[in-house]
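Page 42, continued from yesterday. The earlier attempt failed because a stray header line got pasted into the input along with the sequence. Redoing it now with the clean sequence only.
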Amino acid sequence: MYNYIMRLDKFLKVSRLIKRRTVANKVSDQGRIYVNDVIAKPAKQLKEGDTITIVQANTEIKIRIIKIPANNVSVQEASTLYEVIK
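This time it went through. Structure tokens are written below.
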């Protein structure tokens, strides 16, 4: 099995955590996305096991990446790419 890497903005779109890549870019540029507790830019390379924290309004979601897909995935598969930590 291959260990893939993927840009942060693309992973957020593919996993359906954020609907559009342009929105993921904007949120990341505003400093509201952290990878492994460090502010991340849209081009940050992700790998399996990384944690992503997304801060929106008064809510915060933290997830752990379980799988990086080679290509786009279906809506049903999107939620299998990560697990919610809190």
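Notes: The longest helix spans residues 21-29.
Reminder to self: strip header lines before submitting.
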